[in-house]
Fold this sequence. Notes:
Blueprint: E1 3-7, H1 12-23, E2 29-32, H2 38-47, E3 55-58, E4 63-66, H3 68-78, H4 89-115, H5 126-146, H6 160-175, H7 183-194, H8 196-205
Parallel strand pairs: 1-2
Antiparallel strand pairs: 1-3, 3-4
Helix pairs in contact: 1-3, 1-6, 1-8, 4-5, 4-6, 5-7
Amino acid sequence: MSLKLYYHPLSSFCHKVLIALYEVNIPFEAIFVDLGDEKSSAAFKALWPIGKFPVLRDEARNCTVPESTIIIEYLDAFYAASRFVPADAGGAWQTRLWDRFYDHYIHYPMQKAVGDNLRPADKRDPLGVEQAKKQIRTAYDIAEQAMQSRTWAAGETFTMADCAAAPALFYADLVEPFSGTHKALAAYFERLKARPSYARALREAEPYFDMFPMERKPRLAAA
């Protein structure tokens, strides 16, 4: 199989790429990366020394593609039957804007708050965590206003921006809940979770939810 995705099923940025792959049924081989296992970690870092997933390896094109946004753009260019970034300039910049918005202003600060729990107690950064949560709350307000008038993150079409928004909101809701305060954003989040591509990624992640390093664990709604 030409495409290999190096990933972990609990990883939020891996979810972003899985959504895109599942949206258009692109065949790929999933390579589970366990950074806590010396052999698995060494093999992955031989491919991508930075050591962060996801990474896409395209054997047919002899390309190693890191970074979730770049992977989706790569799939768009060479493999996707439909576009995750619209062809028209207006739709393209809106999609890229909201992709960056959810990554930078919700996803990364969420990871800051979650990652702090992995530190020794005497090395934690409560001020940094509170600053991260403040940024998340500000981003929620911006997203709430935008979602008053659209179905998906960048308009009326599901795009790369929605691939970014889904895992960002899923995990951020555990750090800084928004369903009771941001109704339009919460309704959008429900649409994301109902999307078959993301629902599949979440089902595959469910066996690993107890590994999430916070007291509040991810959970799927009862069927």
